[in-house]
Every structure is written in C-alpha cells, then in structure tokens.
Amino acid sequence: MTATVETTNPTTTTTARLECVKLSGGRGSALAFRDVDLKLAPGKVLAVLGPNGAGKTTLLLTLAGLLPSKGGNVLVDGARLRGGRPALASRAGLVLVPDNRCLFVGMSVEDNLKVAAKRGGPKPRELLETFPALERRWDLAAGALSGGEQQMLAMARALIQQPKVLLVDEMSLGLAPLIVEQLFETVGKIARDHGCSVVLVEQYAKLALDAADDGLVLSRGRVVLAGPAGELAGQVERLENLYFDAPEDKAG
Ligand SMILES: Nc1ncnc2c1ncn2[C@@H]1O[C@H](COP(=O)(O)OP(=O)(O)OP(=O)(O)O)[C@@H](O)[C@H]1O
C-alpha cells in the first residue's frame, strides 16, 4: 500500500519543496521501506510515525544521502537528487539532525555553530533569536549542556546551514515531556519563520501530530496511513494498534 501526503494546493503551487516518488531504501540487500510517496510544501511540517523498526530512520538517512536509495526518486524544488551522495543532498538544502545529535562535545556552543556556519549566512548569535536558552551557555562546552540544550544546539547548528528541508530524527529522545513540548513548538516556528520544510521522525505521536501539518505512518516499511495531521490525530486508536502490530494493519 502506498499513500500520498499532499500538502501543496495544486491550484496555487506547482512544485513541492520535497517530493518522494515510490522511494525505497535499506541497508545491504534488505529493504527497510518501500514505495514511499510524499509531497511537502515550503514551511510545512511532516510527522513520520510508526513502531520500532518501521523504517523511519532509514528513510531520513536515505533522504540525507547517507544511504543509497533502492528505487524511486527524491526531488527538491522539482530537481531530482542523486541518491547516496550526502554532499549533493547537503548542497540541495537537505540538513539532518541525527538522533544522537553528533555535537562536538569538547567545543563551546559558539564554536559548534561557527564550524557549521556558511559564508553569507546567519552569524552564530543570530540563532539565539530561535534558541534564547543557549545564551547563558554560550561559552560552555557542548558536552556540559543538558539533553534539552544539546538538542537545541543540534537544531541551531542545522538551522545555521539555511536548510530548505530539515530532517529531524527522534528529537524527543531521552528528554523530559516539558522540554519536548517546547521543542515541538520551536519546530513549527522554524518552519514558519524560515520557510523550510521539516520532516520529523517521532515516537511521541500525539505531540508530533499537534506540531505537524501532515502525518505519515510507516509500518514494516510501508506507508499504512497518511494525511492531514489533524485527521491522523483523530485516529489515535488505529495508530496505537499499529504500534502494537495489530494483524489488520500488517503490511506484509
Ligand atoms: N545498522 C543497521 N544495520 C542493519 N540493519 C539495520 C541497521 N539499522 C536498522 N536496521 C534495520 O532496518 C530496519 C528499519 O530500521 P529503522 O531504524 O529505520 O526503523 P525505525 O522506524 O527508525 O525504528 P526506531 O524507532 O526503533 O529507530 C529494521 O529492520 C532494522 O533492524
């Protein structure tokens, strides 16, 4: 089964910021996800949900060019992106925030941002507008920050690269619910203020759908539910069944 997340209004927008057409991917010879179709407009947030092992992270890594695709296409602003080439994906504006954050823990907050800054792009201190909590940590080593602050820094470091599409993996991992809620709010603000599209891989289905415009649910590598976030949020029971691998939703 495939499904399409159509966030563009066909009467006003002809080109999606991010588009996947029958995209498949995995590691080695195994497919972790298959035939994923999606369209995401600038400034919109897509929540990618699903149980453990559903293929969510593999989808993000494939979009970021860190894994080769095994079929289908990825398009950014209508231009086809060659798979398996992280430098090309980065040049096309795809920026990944990995679940382990990958910060330089011995370097200060400022230096973590400096190494990612682009010529002509925002200066590190400009990121404090979006992440004011980092100001009082500015000179501290990233490794000395709390989990929530580290996640903010990881997001700020992605944002300083002026992404067209921000790919965020398990932003909430290991964080207190209150911090998670704040981060989700910030994601919505980033999409609106910076006009970038955000693909948000998450386990916290309810919070993610509250922050997203659209949702897509993977189960066993296949899209089993997709549509406006508000509609998916109204199907929490079906979502929960998927998480517990209910037989009716097995994609085979
Ligand atoms: N490093 C790896 N080597 C081989 N197979 C892997 C590796 N990482 C994940 N897989 C396999 O790929 C499939 C998809 O995993 P993936 O991590 O994309 O799922 P996920 O939906 O992100 O799950 P989770 O929420 O637990 O992170 C699973 O069958 C998993 O066992």
What does this structure look like?
The protein has 8 helices and 10 strands. It has helices spanning 56-63, 86-91, 109-116, 147-159, 177-194, 205-211, 229-233, 236-243; strands spanning 18-25, 33-40, 45-49, 73-76, 79-81, 94-97, 165-169, 197-201, 214-219, 222-228. Helix 3 (109-116) runs parallel beside helix 4 (147-159). The N and C termini lie close together (10 Å). Residues 6-14 and 246-252 have low confidence and may be disordered. The chain binds adenosine-5'-triphosphate.
Q: Nutshell version of this structure?
A:
This protein is of the alpha/beta class and 252 residues long.
Number of DSSP E strands = 10
Spell out the helices and strands N to C: EEEHEEHEHHEHEHEEHH
Largest sheet: 6 strands, mixed
- Termini separation: 10 Å
Task: Output the radius of gyration.
Answer: 18 Å
Bound compounds? adenosine-5'-triphosphate
Count of helical regions: 8
Tell me the structural class.
Answer: alpha/beta
Write the layout of secondary structure elements.
Elements: E1 18-25, E2 33-40, E3 45-49, H1 56-63, E4 73-76, E5 79-81, H2 86-91, E6 94-97, H3 109-116, H4 147-159, E7 165-169, H5 177-194, E8 197-201, H6 205-211, E9 214-219, E10 222-228, H7 229-233, H8 236-243
Parallel strand pairs: 3-8, 3-9, 6-7, 7-8
Antiparallel strand pairs: 1-2, 1-4, 4-5, 9-10
The site of adenosine-5'-triphosphate has 10 residues, from helix 1.
GO biological process, one term: L-amino acid transport
Keywords: Amino-acid transport, ATP-binding, Nucleotide-binding, Transport
Family: Belongs to the ABC transporter superfamily.
